[in-house]
């Protein structure tokens, strides 16, 4: 009985993140438009976009290989599995021992690997430029992320997110190292989700774009799946920040129905605040030149590294 | 007794090598005979070693042959450590032989490859089987010379001759260092048998010196920076199946030599050893991958990636030394298991990648990825297996490269408990270097695969390529299957290595539960766990579900049209992103530090119609700082000594007499 309930909670979490991800995207777009004094698209516009794309015919280039057609599903699956492993409203999920935080990072790296390859498959200059820059950013963002994981793992004594969240709930304290890790994680999240100042999610046909350049040749259902994966990735990073740094409200393992509901409600509140902060930050800063981005990511790497170093020196930092 | 079987197999390999000398008149038959026989013998050796590793056969007992040093003889035995490396070596050897059954048929000069291939295998196996210093060194040198002959197989090319020369010099240097290391450990009594050597009591200064000599000797063979310079020259120069052996397997023999000396023979480690090993490992990993990412030659790129992976293994070994020196047995077991696991993984995916490079070479005649492109259409099966290999080597789940790197990260997370401050400050930097090199490896293989296999063909050779033969494909598929297996059920490998960990650091990792979780738990359930199987199942299920749902309920329609490319598609393949342009951002960010790279612009004066030129200047720092001055001095000294060649007979007699007197004086003073 317990197993079935655990499986149900895990399944609910997977469906939950999938359904919620476009909403978060819609929320950020709406909030951004309001901050710029525009009306903005409706909150549910991303769902409509996805539905529209899914129903459309796919047009692919003549020389596209099977990899181009398979990649969207692999990217989506890797991102979805990673997003499903981050506790959103409850900890101690049935499959949380499948992969820890390092493995989640690596799952996102798998998704990026296929995205970059798909960008290069048609053999256009745009795809190549996007893939090349994406891999450059990743070469700094990934170590920064791992350093952030080190800080969290050294504080909590575990790389399992459920354990980390429970530890943070019970032993919450202000630490210098965690502050550094938070800043590092935010910078990595901005870079990984192609947000300003690293990339512009609204741009098209600009030489500065990174993510959009890679998916330029996609259309129809393939594009829908990739867009959904991108939305899931944004949700994943917001959930990750919420679960590690503000874990309050998370339902403990094997809890009843009410804590789960409370967890879900607080989670939605948390990601709304996250969306607001993201939009506030994006509207108050300009996009960087591509070759300034490594400096930003290098700062994230250094912060994560310093945090780890402090914890190696003394566990009390 | 497995050691008898193993020695017998080595003897068969040598007989095959001799037979090959007489068969070269009939190259087609000789190719099939040599590779078939070598593959079978390697298989026998591998099964024997696997049985020994898993404890299915009794491995006690030693063979002493009355050759070698008269008062020592030649000792041979198998213990868990050597059994593990025998498995790694003969697995790679069997796969390479299978691959060569097809690939070897394209060899233009089989008489320069066939006799040396089985000899090379025999040499590597003998190094592992040897249980005394003399046979170890003889086998080591035999292995070096056999592989040198294979590097020189295509000696008509100038760069191959240079590669052979540099390799020969570095191999001699490495053997000399190992000779000194063994000499120090054997002491004045000449205790050369390993069984007695490991019980000798050494002076305080001696083990540290032995460590440094082992790093120089085994490290130069493995490709530790800055001793790696020969490796990216020599490994690609050989035929591809031999490149796979040299990169995937011979570097493991070097690792074995290092582990045997440092963890087994010389006695208890001291903490500063680990600092040296880890620092070199981290440097090697980063420098190797940075070179790899800028390389255009597919095989040389793989050779640089070998340098990177050797660095990762040395990081793990350094961690194991640090824990072992502080008597933290369980973390030491985790670190040593992780690095042995990574050594196995590297032999699997590097073999696979070199086979893939060989397949590309067979199909197109090109090693330069700038002249390839679109091979996924022309070599469909090769493209799939090489993609798998690229994922494994980039440490992506659910393949095997990720598991071993994940375990090293877990070991790093246990290291704040180390008491030494130097290590506390160093380990986080090593962790950052490891993460950095893993991320760059991903970029490197996206570039290599994306340029060579994806996009549009950049040359007629690439456009007209044909899929390679079945033997090659089966060999590659086999290695990919093993990569997947090691990634999905890593518990099997961890459990198999446990006896090695017990032998080397006196502890092993907890047995990994195969069921019901299929996950590996290095320390405790609450600390960390990872299940490759479930990750694979989840990804397969969710991607399958998504594809099914969309195709079932939404749209299946698909139309092919010209590429969009923002409205301005250009039919010419030169408009594609090239490998150099892909690497440019990374070169621009990291190059000024790692290579002192900069761009030289040459603008023609006004009125001159010649084109402006851009040139990327890139320096190989280890070559310029370390090797160029040394080789310059040696050359100058040789120049000066050259006059000795043209003296009269009287001067020579005077010299001989003076030398004799000098030596007698030395002896007189000594006594």
Account of the protein in words:
The complex is a heterodimer of chains A (about 325) and B (about 675). The model of chain A has no long low-confidence stretch (mean pLDDT about 90). Chain A has 11 helices and 1 strand. Chain A is globular. Chain A is an all-alpha fold and about 325 residues long. The longest helix of chain A is centred in the first third of the chain and has 34 residues. Chain B is mainly α and about 675 residues long. Chain B has a domain of about 50 residues. Helices cover about 70% and strands about 5% of the residues of chain B. Chain B has 24 helices and 5 strands. In chain B, helix 12 packs parallel to helix 16 and helix 15 runs parallel beside helix 19. Classes of the chains: A mainly alpha (about 325), B mainly alpha (about 675).
Summed up:
The complex is a heterodimer of chains A (317) and B (671). Chain A is an all-alpha fold.
